[in-house]
Each structure stands twice: as structure tokens, then as C-alpha cells.
Design a protein that fits this description.
It is a single chain. This protein has 541 residues and is mostly beta strands. It folds into 3 domains: 3-178, Immunoglobulin-like; 210-360, Lamin Tail domain (Immunoglobulin-like, Sandwich); 396-520, Sandwich (Immunoglobulin-like), CATH 2.60.40. It contains 3 helices and 42 strands. The protein has a 6-stranded mixed β-sheet with strand order 8-7-2-1-11-12. The longest helix has 12 residues, at 3-14.
Length: 541
């Protein structure tokens, strides 16, 4: 705790009913100019308290400078992970002792918990539960920043307590984990260690040979490596990954899951079931670990790490550090889960099993047999494999694109339209931006479109989130630049068309008319931005 200096800052806030000490602009940087990056470290965030969040959120800072730190002028900011929708609070007359933890939150004075050192009131609004960042700065100098994908309900997000808090360590997602639940809960039923050192993320659970069932201790039935198997996982769901990823584990013997660990590697395990209850399951049970309750039709326990969409990845299940099962995979297909078949083969889930809109797999249910791989260059037309009909040069053109939507955010509302002048399949068609990012449409099923069709690729397929675009054929994974952007359409490595803009006008698409003239769109669509996604463009004349 920060002692006398803290009381002075808290008293100033109390005079304003804890609504924040400096909500308006203040000239200069205050006295924080001597604070260097890393002197203050973001070490814990409770953005998702048990039940309704209300005024029980908090953010913990650690003074790693080795000296008394004057926070006067330091700005605490929150935003989406991409920096949009930022809100800020500026500290005035607050000090933190060397090596102390400093806990700030949104509680009013009459409801402030004992661990809270300072309240910013409603200055930051409600902390985001996912896709978020928290930062500390002094003027233009960034002191520390935390970016996180998701949080667990009722459990603080904590920096690994096995290490002294450090501003470089806290840049590594693997060094963060949900607070343990085997210790005492906070007054509101949430779990965390505000104002205290954090628990190690990968510490042994150490429950021993007993567990609690119906209020009584009994001998625990611990699973062995032959008793549990990772059967299915969704690393790249259609929608927000931070909420919709999941892992399914098949249990083949009656066992207790108390203390079971999950993680992306053997040295990055955390307790997925971490309380004293036995958590018994019957043989044949499929346990679904989800990033949120919305991840699958049934979610049995929290998934508190990110699976990852690209590159070589792993999922490990263990008990007291002993690996019970491990799966390795590389890459992902949006909306398609990876499945382990009856013979141990790994394949993508069939498009015949849609468990949520544009998401395919069988979470909580038996996996179907893996079908034989299609030959390269073929797709399924119904139940029959045939050669993919790719467009040739001149048969596919980029005719319109939205790089800077205004009605919705860029992460949801960017889109690219392509016009086809022949009946072709869209399988394997890709879009590339100036940064070299690639968005490719992949599917086992033939995606046939007739001549004259205008197809749209959009960042979010949900019309209620993307600004009102209906009938998009595929997701757009590119992030288009507002300035100096080039978009290239290709198939099988051959460029079919390319368009560029020097500067995108906010809320206005760029279009190409029938004569090849490029101009700004004029017709409104959906929520009010200008463009004609999925329809013929009006003349630029």
C-alpha cells in the first residue's frame, strides 16, 4: 500500500465523491516526467467480476522503480485492443512507495473495498471483458501497456506471480492467467489478489489424494494418460475468437477432474478445474472448455488461454504437471473445428455439422469419421468431387471497397466487392493488401457463383454488426489502410486484378464503374455509410 501519499490523493477524490480527481484537460505533464517506461507495471485487472460488474472492477499497478513514484500527471487509459474507444483518467497528488502494489477501481467511497487505494469513479466506464488494452502514460511517453484477449467471469487476470512484475514480461500473453479459485474469495465472490503478490500461473495444484464431495472428504480417482484425450478444438471461430474458442476432452473412465490443467505448452499450464471439489465425470463424457458461456451449445469449464490461428500450435492437458494428452496442429480454417477421428487421424470438421452460425464442429458430441482428403484442385459439388473452376484474367474484378467505415468500427465494417463476368467457383480466391496479409476463401464444398454476380468479403459476416451488409460470401481477414493501400485479387498465385487508393474518405466506399472510372460512392446502404456492396455500381459520371 502507498501510505501517506495515497491518503492525500484519496482525500482529493473523496471530495468529489470518488468521481475522479482530474477528468478535464490539465496543462502540462504534472510531476510524472521523471517516470520511465517500466517504472510502473500493470500487474492485475478484474474487468469481469462475479455477477453484474457494477462498481467492483479494479486495476493493480506495481512500483518497480526502486524509489517513491509521484503519479501526478500520469494518465490511466482503457480502450479496445486496436486503440479505439479510448477513455482516460489523470492522477493528481498521488504517490506509490517503492515495491508497493497500488489498486485503483471504480467503486464509490461508501462501497469501496478495503484493498482499494484510489477510485477513478466513472471516468473509464466499464472495463472491457475482452479485446481490450489498459495503458499508463505521461504526456507522449508510454510507461506500460497491457493488451488482453479475454477474461474469466469472477476471476482477475493476473501477471505470473512466479516472477517480479516487469513491463517486458507483462507483454507476453503466456505470462498471464486467471486468478486461482482454491483460495478465499473477495467479498463479492470474485477471486484475485489485489494489493498482494500474485500466485504463480503454472504452480502445481497439489490437491493430494483426497477431494470434497457433498461436503465430505473422500479418496480422489485421478486420471492417467489413457483416461483422457483431447478430441476436438476450435481455434478460429467465426466471430470474436476471445469469446468463442473451445476445447473438447473425452474421458474414457470414471475419474475426478479436480486440479486438471490445460495450456498451450507443458511449461504454460494453468488449473482449468481449480477448487477442492472432486468434479467427478463418467466414462464417455465429453468435457467442453470454453472461452465464454457462448463458445459452444454447452460449456462445462473455463478455457483461459488463446489457442492461436496460425503457425505450429499445441494443446496440453495435464495433472500436477504430468502430461495426460497433447495434440499438435498447424494453422486453422475460420469457422471449422479440428477433430480427432476414431483411428487417431486429425481433420477439419465437416460443413454438415453447424453448431452455431457459420461455425462447424460437434462440441460435446461424438465426432464423425474423418472423410478422405479431396484431391488438390477439387471440391465437393453435393456429394461428388469435381475440378474447381477458377476465374481467368478478366473474369474477376475488384469493383468496390470500404476501408474506413463510419457507421461501425473498422474491425467489423471493412469490405471488398468482386464482380464475376463468368460462372466460376470462388474456392482458392484470395485478397492481399499492401502489407502482404492474405485473406483466402477455402472450403471443401464448391462455392459456385453465376456470371454477373457481385460478391462481398466483409470483416464481420453479421449484418447487425457490419453496418447492414447481408449475404456476404466470406470473411475478410485483411485490415485495410485508410491511406496508401493496394488490394490485389489472385487465384493459384496469379493476380487477376489490383486497385489502390491514396486516402479513404470516412464512411464512403471507393467504387469502379462499368467504364473503369474510379470515384467515391454516393448511395447509402445499411446503417448509413455510402456504397453499393453486392450490387452494381452507379456511373461515376
Amino acid at each position: 500500500m502507498s501510505g501517506v501519499g495515497l491518503w492525500r490523493g484519496a482525500a482529493a477524490c473523496l471530495a468529489l465523491s470518488w468521481s475522479g480527481c482530474a477528468e478535464g484537460p490539465i496543462e502540462g505533464d504534472g510531476r510524472c516526467a521523471s517516470i520511465e517506461p517500466g517504472d510502473l507495471v500493470l500487474s492485475e485487472v478484474l474487468a469481469n467480476p462475479e455477477g453484474a460488474d457494477g462498481d467492483r472492477e479494479y486495476i493493480e499497478l506495481f512500483n518497480a522503480s526502486g524509489a517513491l513514484v509521484d503519479l501526478d500527471g500520469v494518465v490511466l487509459s482503457t480502450a479496445r485492443a486496436d486503440g479505439q474507444l479510448s477513455k482516460s483518467h489523470r492522477f493528481v497528488d498521488v504517490w506509490v512507495e517503492a515495491g508497493d502494489y497500488f489498486v485503483v477501481g471504480n467503486a464509490a467511497d461508501q462501497a469501496a473495498p478495503a484493498f482499494l487505494d484510489y477510485s477513478y469513479g466513472n471516468a473509464l466506464g466499464s472495463l472491457r471483458n475482452s479485446d481490450a488494452q489498459v495503458s499508463l502514460s505521461c504526456g507522449a511517453k508510454l510507461i506500460d501497456r497491457l493488451v488482453y484477449d479475454r477474461t474469466s467471469d469472477g476471476r482477475a487476470l493476473e501477471l505470473d506471480g512466479a516472477l517480479t512484475p516487469n513491463h517486458e514480461t507483462n507483454d507476453e500473453p503466456a505470462r498471464w492467467c486467471a486468478a486461482r479459485t482454491e483460495g478465499p474469495a473477495l467479498a463479492d465472490g470474485s477471486f484475485g489478489t489485489p494489493g498482494q503478490p500474485n500466485d504463480p500461473c503454472s504452480a502445481e495444484v497439489g490437491f493430494g489424494d483426497t477431494c470434497v464431495e457433498a461436503g465430505e472428504l473422500r479418496e480422489a480417482v485421478r486420471p492417467s494418460p489413457v483416461d483422457v484425450h483431447i478430441a476436438e478444438w476450435m481455434p478460429n471461430p467465426e466471430g470474436l475468437d476471445a469469446d468463442l474458442e473451445w476445447v473438447e476432452m473425452l474421458v474414457s473412465r470414471n475419474v475426478d477432474l479436480q486440479g486438471l490443467q490445460l495450456g498451450p505448452a507443458e511449461d504454460q499450464l494453468s488449473a482449468a478445474i481449480a477448487d477442492e471439489a472432486c468434479s467427478p465425470v463418467d466414462a464417455g463424457t465429453r468435457v467442453v472448455f470454453g472461452a465464454s458461456p457462448a463458445a459452444a451449445p454447452r460449456v462445462d469449464a473455463d478455457l483461459d488461454f488463446t489457442l492461436g490461428n496460425t503457425g505450429a500450435r499445441s494443446i496440453v492437458v495435464a495433472l500436477d504437471g504430468m502430461v495426460l494428452d497433447r495434440v499438435d496442429y498447424e494453422g486453422s480454417t475460420e469457422g471449422r473445428a479440428w477433430q480427432v477421428g476414431a483411428s487417431g487421424e486429425v481433420c477439419l470438421a465437416s460443413a454438415a455439422h453447424e453448431y452455431a452460425l457459420q461455425n462447424f464442429g460437434t462440441p460435446g458430441e461424438p465426432n464423425p469419421a474423418c472423410t478422405s482428403e479431396l484431391e488438390h484442385g477439387t471440391c465437393l459439388d453435393g456429394a461428388v468431387a469435381r475440378a474447381i473452376v477458377h476465374p481467368s484474367a478478366g473474369e474477376a474484378q475488384i469493383t468496390e471497397w470500404m476501408a474506413d467505415p463510419e457507421a461501425v468500427g473498422s474491425r467489423d465494417g471493412e469490405w471488398v466487392e468482386i464482380q464475376l463476368s463468368a460462372s466460376v467457383d470462388l474456392n482458392g480466391m484470395s485478397l492481399t493488401d499492401l502489407a502482404g496479409s492474405v485473406s483466402e476463401l477455402r472450403s471443401e464444398e464448391c462455392i459456385r457463383v453465376p456470371s454477373g454476380t457481385h460478391v462481398v468479403f466483409v470483416r464481420n459476416l453479421d449484418p447487425f454488426a457490419n453496418g447492414g451488409i447481408e449475404g456476404a460470401v466470406g470473411p475478410l481477414s485483411l485490415s485495410l489502410n485508410d491511406r496508401e493501400e493496394t488490394i490485389t485479387l489472385s487465384v493459384l498465385g496469379e493476380a487477376l486484378d489490383s486497385v489502390s487508393h491514396a486516402r479513404a474518405e470516412p464512411g464512403v466506399a471507393t467504387q469502379v464503374d462499368a467504364l473503369g472510372v474510379v470515384c467515391a460512392a454516393t448511395d447509402p446502404y445499411g446503417d448509413g455509410d455510402l456504397g453499393t456492396p453486392g450490387a452494381a455500381n452507379p456511373s461515376c459520371g
